[in-house]
Amino acid sequence: MKLYRSRELSDHWIGEDQHGALVLWPAAKGGWSRRTPYTGGKRQLEEIDPRLARGSGWPGGGAGRPPRSSEPLRHVGIKATEEERASWRRAAADRERTLSEWARDELNASAARQRSKGRS
Fold first, then answer.
1. CA 100 – CA 92 distance, rounded (Å)
2. Is residue 12 within 8 Å of 24, Cβ to Cβ?
3. Which residues of the chain have pLDDT under 70?
4. pLDDT at 101
5. DSSP-assigned states of every residue in the chain
6. Which pairs from 55-58 meet CB under 8 Å and 24+ separation?
7. What is the pLDDT of residues 41-58, one digit of tens each?
8. 53 with 24: CB under 8 angstroms?
9. Which of 9, 64, 104, 108 shows a CA-CA span of 20 to 30 A to 77?
10. Is 51:61 a contact under the CB 8 Å cutoff?
11. Contact (Cβ atoms closer than 8 angstroms) between residue 49 and residue 2
12. Distance between CA 107 and CA 29 in Å, rounded?
């Protein structure tokens, strides 16, 4: 489950429910009990560490204390042709992942292979 924040709604969390729908709730203890469907755009949302919503009651936040940093995940831009993007989208869809998730997984796997080659 993913968690987002919005500059326009800084006192609320936006996250996925158990079915993948986006939901808005107050960023406060027990705020999940006051959740409503999120109807805004997704483009302006920043994905952040789901543990930040711990204590709000959101099921994706896990247990324990929230981490100290609320630093959002950073975006990485890659210039690509339309053909490359189409190929990547198909590969992501074949694995039932979003393009972003698939790209992150592939880049992390490649970096891990490079690190392990360096240790040999």
1. 8
2. yes
3. 63-74, 119-120
4. 78
5. --EEE-STTTTEEEEE-TTS-EEEEESSTTGGGG-EE--S-STT-EEE-GGGGTTTT-GGG-SSPPPS--PPPPP------HHHHHHHHHHHHHTT--HHHHHHHHHHHHHHHHHHHHH-
6. 55/29, 55/30, 56/13, 56/25, 56/26, 56/27, 56/28, 56/29, 56/30, 56/31, 56/32, 57/29, 57/30, 57/31, 57/32, 57/33, 58/1, 58/3, 58/13, 58/15, 58/25, 58/31, 58/32
7. 988 899 988 988 988 999
8. no
9. 9
10. yes
11. no
12. 36
Sheet with 22-26: strands ordered across: 36-37, 22-26, 12-16, 3-5, 46-48
